[in-house]
């Protein structure tokens, strides 16, 4: 059964995970990794882990829960070394059990490795079956262990060559960090679907999911890891190779809309500014007569400010977010479970009472949260509620590491905008167009994966995977029901 927090998040796309790696002899790499992961906590809240090498051996510590629940001064004190990688996880492939927490650890004849992965493969089962035929056994159900096993099985060719060989066989979305006794390595899929950036802290190097994690440790952004690139960091510094030929650049557009933090930069664009521009474009495309504009915290707020600036309708904070709930294992009462969203948000009744309000949110997936939100705002006294969404309708599921519903649960795949408006109980509903969304990023449409909006997947999805996803979703609904 889901908790109230999960009920809120279940109506949003969820990110798979965040990764952070550092090569910094002489520095407290475990604490730097801890703070880096803290900046990436929004990308995954189910488990956290860290692997550290002292140039001779690798130590791993991981558990279920938030960064602050998994690590403390005592555990960090045991993680001493020169190199570290860390991981925060939200499960997409593989269930939310300890065995699926990362980093993954593998041994081979000449050493060992730890691996942290953000993304999702689309040929996992085929690869797993082939590895099992060669005698390998798996402890988890994650595709990340498959990647680690492929690298370890070819490690006699040298770790760099083993990674190159692995990249020839894996398909899908992957930004990966690999830690050996003496090196930090990184690889990114040829489409660049998931983000991965390189930074520098003094003379030391960091590779992580988002630039905001560089900021928190005082590092400077250098560049993105290129699609298809292999990066190797060791005693001789950083070197890189084009391990596999880059394909059509396809960064997930939801990094701009929702996943990445607003203080992160992608394609050179600060995401706060991009989201503000989304609201500005939305106001041009879907004007409304109203008394005030409010945003759904947190990702809806920059767009709400942009909408207000363009429309001239005053912006007010109409919803207060409970920022201290985090992940909870305490089951809510039946009354709270029925409302769910009240654990997360509370309306400012005196601000919205008797007002015509424009509510800005970043997306609608199933529609359940929007419906509860609008009911809550009406209960608080809103006179009219006009819903505006700063992205196009989500009509297709994701297979690259984002947890969206199957197509049968995606409300925009099964209802018209008018029907969605009626379902959620709004007075009007409008979405941002493709053109307005892409314009807000100041980049080219061809550089993004827009599959959740138009079904155009950059990496072809096998039919059996589509069927498997549908079956798993139905099984999960049955379990949660």
Describe this structure in words.
- This protein has two domains: 4-249, 4-Layer Sandwich (Glutamine Phosphoribosylpyrophosphate, subunit 1, domain 1); 270-443, Rossmann fold (3-Layer(aba) Sandwich), CATH 3.40.50.2020.
- The chain is of the alpha+beta class and 481 residues long.
> What do we call the CATH topology of the largest domain?
Glutamine Phosphoribosylpyrophosphate, subunit 1, domain 1
What value does the Rg take, in angstroms? 22 Å
Strand proportion, as a percent range, falls in: 15-25%
- CATH top level of the largest domain? Alpha Beta
- Which strand order spans the largest sheet, edge to edge or round the barrel? 3-2-4-1-10-9-11
Number of domains: 2
Structural class: alpha+beta
Distance between the termini: 7 Å
């Amino acid at each position: 059964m889901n908790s109230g927090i999960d009920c809120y998040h279940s109506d949003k796309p969820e990110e798979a995970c965040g990764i952070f790696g550092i090569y910094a002899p002489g520095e407290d790499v475990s604490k730097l990794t801890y703070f880096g992961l803290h900046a990436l906590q929004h990308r995954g809240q189910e488990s956290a882990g860290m692997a550290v090498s002292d140039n001779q051996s690798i130590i791993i510590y991981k558990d279920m829960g938030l960064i602050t629940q998994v690590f403390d001064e005592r555990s960090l004190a045991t993680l001493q070394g020169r190199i570290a990688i860390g991981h925060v996880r939200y499960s997409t492939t593989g269930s939310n059990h300890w065995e699926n927490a990362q980093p993954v650890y593998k041994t081979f004849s000449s050493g060992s490795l730890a691996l942290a992965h953000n993304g999702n493969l689309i040929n996992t089962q085929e690869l797993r079956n082939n590895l099992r035929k060669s005698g390998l056994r798996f402890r988890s159900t994650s595709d990340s262990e498959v990647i680690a096993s492929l690298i370890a099985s070819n490690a006699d060719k040298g770790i760099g060559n083993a990674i190159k060989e692995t990249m020839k066989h894996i398909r899908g979305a992957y930004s990966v960090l690999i830690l050996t006794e003496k090196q930090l390595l990184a690889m990114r899929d040829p489409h660049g679907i998931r983000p991965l950036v390189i930074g520098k802290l003094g003379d030391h190097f960091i590779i992580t999911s988002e630039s905001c994690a560089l900021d928190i440790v005082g590092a400077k952004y250098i560049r993105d890891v290129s699609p298809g690139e292999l990066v190797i960091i060791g005693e001789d510094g950083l070197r890189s190779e084009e391990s596999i030929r880059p394909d059509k650049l396809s960064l997930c557009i939801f990094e701009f809309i929702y996943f990445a933090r607003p203080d992160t930069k992608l394609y050179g664009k600060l995401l706060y500014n991009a989201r503000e521009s989304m609201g500005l474009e939305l106001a041009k495309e879907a004007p409304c007569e109203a008394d005030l504009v409010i945003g759904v915290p947190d990702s809806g707020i920059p767009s709400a400010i942009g909408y207000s600036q363009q429309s001239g309708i005053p912006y007010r904070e109409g919803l207060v977010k409970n920022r201290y709930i985090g992940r909870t294992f305490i089951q809510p009462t039946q009354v709270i479970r029925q409302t769910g969203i009240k654990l997360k948000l509370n309306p400012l009744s005196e601000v919205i009472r008797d007002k015509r309000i424009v509510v800005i949110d970043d997306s609608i997936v199933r529609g359940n949260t929007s419906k509860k939100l609008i009911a809550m705002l009406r209960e608080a006294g809103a006179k009219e509620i006009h819903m505006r969404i700063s992205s196009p309708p989500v009509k297709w599921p994701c297979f690259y590491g984002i947890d969206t519903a199957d197509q049968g649960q995606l409300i925009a795949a099964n209802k018209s905008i008018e029907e969605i408006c009626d379902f959620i109980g709004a007075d009007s509903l409008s979405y941002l167009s493709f053109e307005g969304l892409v314009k807000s990023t100041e980049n080219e449409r061809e550089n993004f994966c827009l599959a959740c909006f138009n079904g155009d997947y950059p990496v072809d999805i096998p039919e059996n995977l589509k069927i498997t996803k549908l079956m798993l979703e139905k099984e999960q609904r049955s379990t949660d029901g």
